[in-house]
């Protein structure tokens, strides 16, 4: 079970106020965005220190209600080479979403680590590679 990348996902009320700080002040660039209800619902920013994602609480509630009910401030997004191997290794972990395939081509499972952090493990879906 090889993890290839872990990215923090900040859960916020609104994304737009974050952009001035991360883009204008720290030199990050918006590389992807998903609208939600007339505003930004999700963005990926890339910069000198790596990648950070932002998702609104409203977008999260629609996308992953079992995660949103926990009211997280931060979620970890862990890309892996084998979701099946991760799921096997995580037996006994609290599972919020057993498995789903997203519109952006990832197979995902969502679990809670022993200290309560929410982790989304994701593998590129074979049909989307």
Task: Tag the structure with descriptive keywords.
globular, 129 residues
Short description:
With 129 residues, this protein is an alpha+beta fold. Helix content is 22%, strand content 49%. Strand 7 and strand 8 form a beta hairpin.
What does this 3D model show about the protein?
The structure is a single chain. This protein is α+β, with helices and mostly antiparallel strands and 129 residues long. The chain is built from four helices and eight strands; from the N terminus they run βαβββααβαβββ. The chain has an eight-stranded mixed β-sheet. The longest helix has 10 residues, at 16-25. It is globular and about 40 Å long.
SS-based class:
alpha+beta
Q: What is the ordering of alpha helices and beta strands? A: EHEEEHHEHEEE
Proportion of residues in β-strands: over 45%
Largest sheet: 8 strands, mixed
Q: Give the overall pLDDT as a whole number.
A: 95
How many distinct beta strands? 8
Helix percentage range:
10-25%
| Termini Cα gap | 19 Å
Report the C-alpha radius of gyration, rounded.
15 Å
Instruction: Name the strands of the widest sheet in spatial order.
Output: 2-3-4-1-5-8-7-6
What is the overall number of helices?
4
Shape, per Cα inertia axes: globular
Low-confidence stretches: none
What order do the helices and strands come in, and which of them pair?
Blueprint: E1 3-12, H1 16-25, E2 29-36, E3 39-47, E4 50-56, H2 57-63, H3 65-68, E5 74-80, H4 83-89, E6 94-101, E7 106-112, E8 118-124
Parallel strand pairs: 1-4, 5-8
Antiparallel strand pairs: 1-5, 2-3, 3-4, 6-7, 7-8
